[in-house]
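Journal club prep — side note

Before the paper discussion, L.F. wants everyone to see what a predicted structure for a comparable chain looks like in token form. Sequence:
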Amino acid sequence: VDWNGSTGEVMMLFKGKEIKMMPDSEKVLVDGKQVSLDRSASLVNDRTMVPLRFISELLGMKVDYIYESQQVFITELS
């Protein structure tokens, strides 16, 4: 994960997959192709928060949410 302070762009590279996104944009580049988000990245207290489920599933992870305990489990699929 890298961050460009002058543009605000977040760049991620994982197992050959490249993701680029800007805070407050509902568009993201995945391997150079534009994809729409249901929720954009945002700046909170000088930190860029990204949509965790979208990023995790895009990278081949399984995401489970336990409502009662408000826990998120992210598991790498084989």
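L.F.'s comment for the group: The longest strand covers residues 61-66. Keep this in mind when we get to the figures.
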